[in-house]
Every structure is written in structure tokens, then in C-alpha cells.
């Protein structure tokens, strides 16, 4: 199977600090690849480089077989991103925000797509409410709806459920798994919630000090570090 | 009243000024600009009996506001995305930095049309001043002010991208820096050296000299128009090149994701 994302010898230096140190990995079609690791491990910097928000110092990123650096608009039109740390213009309603991003991504039949996603994320009743009046959990759901507007082939998620209550977080994970199964969506998922990562990830990349220290299915990672859960593995790595 | 708590919270603000050059600049910048601007206006009025000064002042004020609004249309619209933590949503979309700036230019025109319509109508109602008396010459005057406002706006936006949200004061302050040397309310001849020389390299000073010439003689000094166009062409090119270079640097340093934090 050809990988959708190919990362080779990716390195990011901030001055003399190696935030990401010569990492290589692939993301395959229909796969949820989790990135875990302690704070400062290089997870967020890696995601930023994959979205062309930060320029790598060395290495190559190829997405859909194209080099990211020279095919940015073509690639970004077919991927999307969400994080609990971003928001949307506060004075605009949910519907206005989604309409704008539908236009930015050149979505066909935006009204129908927005209705479909509003129903999936249970935000139908919030469509005409300004974003500033939403709770942080509601904003996260709206951002997730935004991230699926263009029916992306790859979704980059940075702690997407961090501000959601357990019920909505569970529904969000279930929905992501359903979309992945139905449409072959690939997801690169970063989170500090180890239980969530164990539940949702097909494979996991474990990063520490900018390096990949383990790659594999959650069960393989647990076996490699002799831990009963990813949480236990995480604590072993973080405290060693 | 607990003075310890008052002092504690005062210290909280003093710490900000200790570490922040833009905030420190605020303390000295505005009084200095006020002193320069109104000082030169006073000198001009004291030396000359200015005929039709209402037309001079109100016309100048409306035109200056156009420059100011065109700059704000870019810088403040950009800040709106920073304040709402929306910038990353924009830059992970297929939209390029050039398209983003182009959309800010369009919004600056829309804002300018709205505010200028209000100012022009109020000037007519309150002071019986009709800026359209300047005739067709109004077009090159306004066009040059808008382009200068855009150049300042693009550079200001680049600086906020590079140095973060604490430099957002630049969005309000940078255009006003040019006000005393733009000779908005008085001729360039009022300015002492070296400010008069600096004014010659400021496109807006040629626009306001032109405006006064149209008002008094009914003719536009073409030298001033050529100067304004050439200077603006140079400055807008510098602004775009600076923004592009700075955007690459910001991505290289990983600062794009930090803005607004």
C-alpha cells in the first residue's frame, strides 16, 4: 500500500535546540496514527511542519506523492486540521464561519455539507449563534465540523477532545472512527489522553526529546515497554 | 482600602513596562506626536493669515483619515484573526499569504468607503464643506494616500507577525508617526530641518501640498504627483518584499503558531 504521507529524516532546530531530531515515518490510507510523548517531545512541531506552519531545517515531507514545500495549495486543499487550542472569529455565527471555510476550501454544495456536519456534531441548534456565546466544548465541535468541510483525505488533530466532556469526546471518537471506516480517512492524532490513544489509534508513534523511540500497534508498544497500558508506558518513559 | 494590594497590582503593570519596548514607547510616543503636530499647526497659524482655513483643515482631516483607515483596514483586520485564534485555521487552508493580504486590501477599501462616506456627509452637514470641490484631482490624491496606508499596514502586520501580539500597539501608532511630517494641516515649509527633508520622501506630504495647491490655485502641482507616485511605488514594493521575507522567517522560527499565545 502506498503511503499518503511520507516523512523522511525530518529535523527541526530552534537555535541549538533540536525540537525534532531526524524522524521518518509514513501514514497510510484509512489509518489513525497516534503521536504520543511527554511535553517537549516534538509532537506539535511535527504536526506544524506537516501543515507547512513551520519550515523544517532538514528532511522531506511528501503528501499524496507531492513535496509539501512546492505543492502547498494543492495538498492543503485535501487535508484539514483541528485543535482544542484554536478557535474561530467570535463575532460571526457558526453558520457564517462554516460558510467562509467552505468557500476557502472550494466545497461543492456548501449548504448541504454544513447541514450534514451540523447534524453529525450536534450543533444544529447553534448554527445562528455567534461563536463568542459558545462554550469551549461547543467551539471544539464547531472546529471539528470545520475540519471535515472539505471531506479531507488526511486529518491532522492536535488534542481535539481536550475541552470536551466525556460524552461528547466519546461521540467524537466514534464519529472519527466511522468516517475513517466509511471514507478511508487517514488521521494523524496527537493527544495526552493515553486511554483515548489506545482506543482510537491503529498505530502509535512514541516520541521523546524530538526522536521516535517506538512505532507500532498499541499492543506492540505496551509489549515493548512491558506496560499494562499506554498510560503506564508513558509514565515509564517520562520519568526515566 | 488595603494599600498592599493596590501596590501589588500596580507592580503587575509596571513589570509590563519594564520588559516591553512597545508599551514603553506608548508612554512617550503619543505625547511627542501631539506636541509636534499641534506645535507646527500653531506655528503655521501664527505666521500666516490662512484664508478659508476651515476648508483646509476639514479637507485635510478627511484625506488623512483615508490614509489612516486604509492602514487600519489591514493591520486591525489581521489582529481580529489573532484575537479570535483563527490565524492557524487560515494558514492551514489552501489560502496563500499573498491571497490573505489581498483580502485585507479589499476589506480596507470597504472600511474606507464606509467611514469616508460618513465623514464627507458630516463635513457637508456641519461645516458646509464639500470635498468634491477638489474635482477630478481628488482621485490621484486619494489613490496615493490609500497606497501609502497599505504599505504602512503591510509592514505593521509583518512586524506583529514577527514580534507577537504585544506589538499590536503598532497597528494604531505607526500611521500617526507620519502625521507631523506629512504636513497634513500646514505646509512642508513650516517644518524645521531635517524634518522638511524627511517630508520630501513621504508620499503623503506631496498629497497634502497638492491638496492645498488645488484649493488655492485650482491647479495640481504635477511635480508633487510624480513624487508621490514614485515614492509609493517604491514603498509598496518594499512592503510586499519585506512581508514575504518576514513570513518565511516567521515560519522558519516557528512563530506563526505562537502568535496570540
Characterization of the model:
The complex is a heterodimer of chains A (240) and B (261). Chain A is of the alpha/beta class. Chain A contains 9 helices and 10 strands. A 6-stranded mixed beta sheet of chain A has the order 6-7-8-3-9-10, sandwiched between helices. A 4-stranded antiparallel beta sheet of chain A has the order 2-1-4-5, covered by helices on one side. In chain A, strand 9 and strand 10 form a beta hairpin. In chain A, helix 8 packs across helix 9. Helix content of chain B is 75%, strand content 0%. Chain B is mainly alpha-helical. Chain B has helices at 3-19, 21-47, 53-83, 87-91, 97-127, 138-163, 170-177, 195-200, 203-217, 222-252. The model of chain B has no long low-confidence stretch (mean pLDDT 86). Chain B has 10 helices and no strands. Chain A binds chain B through residues 12, 14, 19, 44-45, 48, 51-55, 72-74, 76-77, 79-81, 83, 85-90, 101, 104-106, 131, 143, 146, 156, and chain B through 80-81, 83-86, 88-96, 248, 251-254, 256-257.
SSE ordering of chain B: HHHHHHHHHH
Characterize the overall form of chain A: globular
Give the biggest beta sheet of chain A.
6 strands, mixed
What is the CA-CA span between the terminal residues of chain A?
37 Å
Query: Mean of residue pLDDT of chain A?
Result: 91
Strands of chain B, count: 0
Number of helices of chain B: 10
How much of the sequence lies in strands of chain B comes to: under 5%
> Structural class, from secondary structure content of chain B?
mainly alpha
Biggest sheet details of chain B: none
Oligomer: heterodimer
Quick description:
With 240 residues, chain A is an alpha/beta fold. Chain A is 38% helix and 27% strand.
Structural key phrases:
heterodimer; A: 240 residues; alpha/beta; 4-stranded antiparallel β-sheet; 9 helices; 38% helix; globular; B: 261 residues; mainly alpha; 10 helices; 0% strand
Amino acid at each position: 500500500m502506498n503511503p499518503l504521507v511520507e516523512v523522511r529524516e525530518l529535523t527541526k532546530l530552534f537555535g541549538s535546540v533540536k525540537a525534532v531530531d531526524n524522524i521518518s515515518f509514513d501514514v497510510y490510507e484509512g489509518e489513525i496514527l497516534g503521536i504520543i510523548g511527554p511535553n517537549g517531545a516534538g509532537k506539535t512541531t511535527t504536526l506544524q511542519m506537516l501543515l507547512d506552519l513551520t519550515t523544517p531545517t532538514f528532511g522531506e515531507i511528501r503528501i499524496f506523492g507531492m513535496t509539501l514545500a512546492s505543492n502547498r495549495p494543492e495538498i492543503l486543499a485535501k487535508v484539514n486540521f483541528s485543535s482544542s487550542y484554536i478557535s474561530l472569529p467570535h463575532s460571526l455565527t457558526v453558520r457564517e464561519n462554516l460558510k467562509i471555510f467552505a468557500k476557502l476550501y472550494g466545497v461543492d454544495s456548501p449548504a448541504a455539507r454544513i447541514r450534514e456536519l451540523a447534524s453529525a456534531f450536534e450543533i444544529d441548534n447553534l448554527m445562528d449563534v455567534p461563536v463568542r456565546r459558545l462554550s469551549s466544548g461547543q467551539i471544539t465541535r464547531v472546529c471539528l465540523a470545520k475540519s471535515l468541510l472539505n471531506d479531507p483525505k488526511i486529518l491532522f488533530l492536535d488534542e481535539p477532545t481536550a475541552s470536551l466532556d466525556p460524552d461528547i469526546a466519546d461521540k467524537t471518537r466514534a464519529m472519527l472512527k466511522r468516517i475513517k471506516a466509511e471514507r478511508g480517512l487517514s488521521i494523524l492524532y496527537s493527544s495526552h489522553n493515553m486511554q483515548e490513544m489506545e482506543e482510537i489509534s491503529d498505530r502509535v508513534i512514541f516520541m521523546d526529546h524530538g526522536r521516535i523511540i517506538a512505532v507500532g500497534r498499541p499492543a506492540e508498544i505496551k509489549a515493548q515497554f512491558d506496560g499494562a497500558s499506554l498510560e503506564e508506558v508513558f509514565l515509564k518513559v517520562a520519568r526515566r | 482600602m488595603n494599600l498592599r494590594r493596590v501596590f501589588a497590582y500596580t507592580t503587575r503593570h509596571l513589570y509590563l513596562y519594564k520588559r516591553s519596548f512597545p508599551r514603553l514607547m506608548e508612554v512617550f510616543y503619543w505625547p511627542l506626536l501631539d506636541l509636534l503636530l499641534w506645535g507646527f499647526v500653531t506655528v503655521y497659524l501664527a505666521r500666516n493669515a490662512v484664508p478659508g482655513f476651515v476648508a483646509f483643515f476639514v479637507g485635510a482631516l478627511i484625506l488623512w483619515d483615508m490614509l489612516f483607515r486604509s492602514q487600519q483596514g489591514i493591520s486591525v483586520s489581521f489582529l481580529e484573526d489573532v484575537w479570535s485564534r483563527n490565524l492557524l485555521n487560515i494558514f492551514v487552508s489552501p489560502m496563500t499569504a499573498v491571497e490573505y493580504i489581498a483580502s485585507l486590501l479589499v476589506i480596507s477599501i470597504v472600511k474606507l468607503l464606509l467611514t469616508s462616506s460618513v465623514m464627507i456627509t458630516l463635513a457637508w452637514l456641519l461645516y458646509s464643506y464639500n470635498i468634491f470641490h477638489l474635482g477630478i484631482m481628488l482621485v490621484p490624491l486619494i489613490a496615493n494616500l490609500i497606497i501609502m496606508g497599505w504599505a504602512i499596514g503591510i509592514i505593521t502586520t509583518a512586524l506583529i507577525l514577527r514580534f507577537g501580539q504585544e506589538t499590536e500597539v503598532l497597528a494604531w501608532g505607526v500611521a500617526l508617526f507620519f502625521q507631523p511630517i506629512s504636513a497634513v494641516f500646514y505646509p512642508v515649509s513650516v517644518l524645521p530641518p531635517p524634518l522638511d527633508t524627511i517630508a520630501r520622501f513621504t508620499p503623503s506630504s506631496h498629497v497634502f501640498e497638492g491638496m492645498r495647491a488645488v484649493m488655492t490655485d485650482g491647479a495640481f502641482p504635477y511635480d508633487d504627483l510624480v513624487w508621490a507616485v514614485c515614492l509609493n511605488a517604491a514603498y509598496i514594493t518594499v512592503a510586499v518584499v519585506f512581508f514575504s521575507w518576514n513570513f518565511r522567517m516567521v515560519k522558519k522560527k516557528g512563530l506563526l503558531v505562537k502568535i496570540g499565545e
